[in-house]
Amino acid sequence: MLTTDGRIFSGCNIENSSYGLTMCAERVAIFKAVSAGECEIQAVLVYADTAKLTPPCGACLQVTSEFSENPEIILSNGRSTKAYHLRELLPLDFGSS
């Protein structure tokens, strides 16, 4: 994840036997950035070594929307890359207010 201040934060999936308690890499990176004082996301890169590009889940999109208006979301699997903006993937967020 790239902040508007130019800092980069990485994340990884933190799996749990109870799927509801699993933490996605996108939210890990966002929470690391917020805990370091960064509150504005410029872009998120989601890399997954999968056949198809893997977009963020709804929870990750919603959390992302709380820290930026419409950041770039870049999906890559090492063979293909496609960029979107948050509002394309989550047109009706809850909003930060």
Write the layout of secondary structure elements.
Layout: E1 2-3, H1 25-35, E2 41-47, H2 58-65, E3 72-76, E4 81-85, H3 86-89
Parallel strand pairs: 2-3
Antiparallel strand pairs: 1-2, 3-4
Task: Give structural notes.
The structure is a single chain. Strand 3 and strand 4 (81-85) form a beta hairpin. Helix content is 24%, strand content 20%. The protein is an alpha+beta fold and 97 residues long. It has a single domain (2-89), classed as Cytidine Deaminase, domain 2. It has helices at 25-35, 58-65, 86-89; strands spanning 2-3, 41-47, 72-76, 81-85. It is built from three helices and four strands; from the N terminus they run βαβαββα. The protein has a four-stranded mixed β-sheet. The mean pLDDT is 92.
Radius of gyration from CA coordinates: 13 Å
| Main beta sheet strand tally, sense and closure | 4 strands, mixed
Average predicted local confidence, pLDDT:
92
Number of helices: 3
Strand order of the largest sheet: 1-2-3-4
Name the CATH homologous superfamily.
Cytidine Deaminase, domain 2
CATH class: Alpha Beta
* Share of residues in strands: 15-25%
Overall shape: globular
Q: Considering DSSP H and I runs of 4 or more, what fraction of the residues is helical?
A: 10-25%
| Overall tally of structural domains | 1
- CATH fold-level topology: Cytidine Deaminase, domain 2
**How far do the termini sit from each other?**
23 Å
H/E element sequence: EHEHEEH
Number of strands: 4
Poorly predicted regions? none
